[in-house]
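Table S2 (text version). Query chain:
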Amino acid sequence: MYIYIYILYAYIKTHLRELEVQVGGLAPPTNPVNLGNTGLLSLDPSPDKLPLYYQLLDRHTWMEKVHCYSTIMYSLLSGNNLKRSSVSISLSTKRRRQAPLNHNVPQQQVDMLIQGINQVYQNMTLNISRPFGNNAVVQVTLGRELRAVVTFKGILIEWVVFRAYNEPLLDDDGMVDLYTPSLYEVFQKVTDNANVAMLNFCSPGFSDLSVRSFFTWLHSFASLFTDVCIRCSNHLHNHLPPTWREFRTLDAFHEECKP
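Corresponding structure-token output:
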């Protein structure tokens, strides 16, 4: 028994010496990976933490490759003069500088636009005032159906509020009330839809057309309480008339029936 143990000990000692000689002959790595204290993870005896160190090594290797490739790409792109791109960028910059500022236009231009719209519709009256400076505030009276306040920023519509015909447009101080909502749910719904329409028709490149399109849409509410819904063919749904108007066709829909 002791003879077998001695032979096994001599065998292990011989191969261990060979292993030490081979390890001593290995060249040190040229680019050692220094991950700081994370190297201690490889010494953790816990089997669920041991793979973390090798995963970090793998991620570090990939990051080194990405850094190397990005450096090469930068050197290639920096040596190539993108003349066409630079020309197009300069042209687009000039066009932006030459584009008109729709929020800073002469008052006469806005007045002429509103007066032209006022002459088109017989049952809709537009009154212009400027209680807060250069920006126009238009008080709209549409037949005996409703009233509205349309606030402009230059020649762009900024805010809209609808009220019933019997609700005032002025506050207690005699100033135009821009933000107080209507007491009636039907006009609250129309106000929400009007602000959606304002954003839909907004086109800074064609500001006159966008304003005219919005007031055409607004005028479609002249028959607010007589129109029937295109989809359900009813006047009322949930005790409300059709408060939505399709932007292109001006067809009337209930809130629940709109496309």
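Notes on Table S2: The helical segments are 2-24, 50-78, 83-98, 107-120, 185-201, 207-219. The beta strands are 124-129, 137-142, 146-153, 156-164, 244-245, 252-253.
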